[in-house]
Here is the input.
Amino acid sequence: MTQAPIRIAPSILAADFARLGDQVREAEKAGADRLHLDVMDGHFVPNITFGPPVIRSLRAVTRLPLETHLMVEEPDRFLEHFAEAGSTTLIVHWEGSVHLQRALDRIRGLGLKTGVAINPATPAMVLEEVLGDVDLVLIMTVNPGFGGQRFIESTLPKIRRLRDWLDRARPNVELEVDGGIDAETAPKVIAAGARVLVAGTAVFRHPQGITAGINTLRG
Ligand code: DX5
Ligand code: ZN
Here is the structure.
């Protein structure tokens, strides 16, 4: 089986928000494959970030796909808003959605790609009944809420298990990882089977700049 190429999804959480448009343009020029947008509500995670207006503004300055990672309780309440703002993909958390299948069905109904995320403590097997409803599975490699955290090594066996499972059952579902991904951890998650790498700090705070940050992740 030919392996899917590695995709890089810079997370704007680590960008300079006063220069967001310029930084996103630079990431696009440097070969970023999509943008990762971390929405936090202060309930599901102990932090608050941004909402649809920021996404709408970004939609106007980049042609990159916009994947919106909803770290919010009951994301069902906001799906239309994030779709209208210009998201390409909506990622909801298994832990935050009582009616997960309905949320995924509604995202599809809005014409967007569907993603489901699981926290480090959540086993991959909880996804069994929804794998047919998703385009992407996001394995959190840190506990969500903040950028710049340390990669949790014990997530590697879970990535490997999910890779095997997807190869057998759903080879078209993308396997993405998020949190603590840098030049040192990227080869490990790629070897375990991840194909989409989210990275905030390693891209937007790289000492040699955004382009160098993206290049080092590609190895
Ligand atoms: C964490 C977010 C991540 C975060 C990653 O809750 O979901 O997307 O921005 O940041 P780094 O790459 O700095 O760990
Ligand atoms: Zn994220």
